[in-house]
Write a structure and sequence with these properties.
alpha/beta, D-Maltodextrin-Binding Protein, domain 2, 2 domains, six-stranded mixed beta sheet, three-stranded antiparallel beta sheet, 18 helices, 13 strands, about 40% helix
Length: about 450
């Protein structure tokens, strides 16, 4: 499968440069896309789409809209780039923007919209968003009250992957609280004499992002959505108590050599272990617990494991801090489709990508999910993906987008990633929090 996290391609060194990139406002504004076909739709129209989705997933993306292309007479030309985050800004600044871009971070879309590079979403997209997407998801494509884009695909984060048969053999129960998860960890270690968890932060230039997911899960569950939102806006700083407490809780597992890193070494191996490698350790039984998003089922399948409740590997969500909490509390990721051009053909493609018709077409091809409420969970390619779709569609679910993707990239993809690397390599928590907070832009 394509080696990517849902929402950000691995190895994107240029993402780190975005926070310092200044976009001039004097060139390349809305309507300057270079797609062919003039102002109307019909035979011969070409709409260009630019994004991070690559490899096999890009092939499936092209397949997902192939039938619609035939029906509409619009040719969608998709281009993938591992330097999307920096190059989209350069292209917009130079007047060479694509017609549509698939933004892996809402913060990046907001930056482009605030500099007048994007055009507001057309009426058909706004209608689809109002009918098929939750208010939270709609907000991720909205800047200063104006809708600029609709969501595309999604992931549910915070799953704990485990072996059902091993749990049954040992009488281990699925925990219902965070403290229960800590107790389970201690029990497994005491009974086996080995670290229960396998953890990998390795992701080339993006190394560290799996660690940010741990922190985000705990901030949301321990301190609630209001504090989470304030943290994203830097109204609650990294150095403030709620975030320091989340680091302490996560550190109870990640910084304890008795608990990590099964099959790979001690705590110091976390930063050098590629995030996909624990899938093999799970399937082989070297590792008994692993924290990763819904898309990880593909990695486990590639490692030879069957992902099912009665299969080799299954998963439960990171539990809440209080027992009996109603509804799921989850973090997740996804993409937002924004437009640089308002030609009719571009509007038609953008509307199709926001529709349940496209969501079902792509999900039926396997490996991904969407938060579109018109999506049939039965179309998902695995049981865990079906469950993730149901969680996203449940009105009782409290969902928050990946915080590092919402923060300015100088923090979210900069000091936060680096801080997670330094943290597991031995730098004390107080110093780490100060270093991460220092990445926030002055304005």
């Amino acid at each position: 499968m394509a080696m990517m996290r849902r929402g950000r391609v691995i190895g994107t060194a240029s993402v780190l440069a975005l926070g310092g990139l200044v976009l001039a406002g004097c060139t390349g504004g809305p309507g300057t896309g270079d797609g062919d076909g003039g102002g109307g739709s019909g035979e011969g129209d070409v709409v260009t789409v630019y994004g991070t989705i690559s490899g096999t997933e890009a092939d499936l993306l092209n397949e997902s809209w192939a039938e619609w292309e035939e029906e509409s007479g619009i040719d969608i030309e998709y281009e993938a780039s591992q330097e999307f985050e920096a190059q989209i800004a350069v292209r917009a600044q130079g007047g060479n923007a694509p017609d549509l871009a698939i933004f892996p971070q809402p913060g990046l879309l907001a930056d482009m919209a605030s500099r007048d590079y994007l055009v507001p979403a057309p009426e058909a997209v706004a209608e689809n968003v109002a009918e098929y997407w939750s208010e939270d998801w709609a907000e991720y494509g909205t800047v200063d009250g104006t809708l600029y884009g609709a969501p595309l695909m999604a992931s549910v984060k915070g799953w704990i992957w485990y072996s059902p048969s091993t749990f049954e053999e040992n009488g281990w129960e699925i925990p219902t609280t965070w403290q229960g998860l800590l107790d389970l960890t201690a029990d497994i270690q005491a009974e086996t004499g080995e670290p229960p968890w396998c953890v990998g932060f390795g992701s080339d230039a993006a190394t560290g992002w799996p660690g940010t997911d741990w922190i985000e899960d705990v901030v949301l569950r321990q301190s609630g959505p209001e504090v989470y939102d304030q943290w994203v806006a830097n109204e609650v700083a990294f150095t403030d108590e709620p975030i320091a407490s989340a680091f302490d809780e996560v550190g109870t597992i990640l910084l304890d050599p008795d608990y990590v890193n099964a099959g790979f070494g001690g705590v110091g191996s976390i930063g050098t272990t590629p995030f996909g490698d624990p899938a093999n350790a799970l399937v082989s039984g070297e590792c008994l617990l692993h924290h990763q998003a819904s898309f990880y089922d593909g990695f486990i399948t590639d490692a030879g494991g069957e992902v099912a409740e009665d299969g080799d590997i299954w998963a439960f969500l990171t539990p809440p801090f209080e027992d009996g909490a109603e509804g799921s509390v989850v973090t997740g990721g996804g993409e937002i489709v924004g437009a640089f051009d308002d030609r009719e053909a571009v509007q038609e493609v953008q509307a199709y990508l926001s529709s349940p018709e496209w969501a079902n077409s792509r999900v039926e091809l396997g490996g991904v999910i969407s938060a579109n409420n018109g999506l049939d969970p039965e179309n998902a390619s695995s049981e865990i993906l079906s469950e993730a779709i149901e969680i996203l569609q449940d009105p009782e679910t409290t969902f928050r987008f990946d915080a590092s993707d919402l923060m300015p990239s100088a923090v979210g993809a900069g000091t936060f990633w680096q801080g997670m690397r330094d943290w597991v390599n031995g730098t004390d928590t107080a110093t780490i929090l100060e270093q991460i907070e220092a990445g926030w832009p002055d304005s």
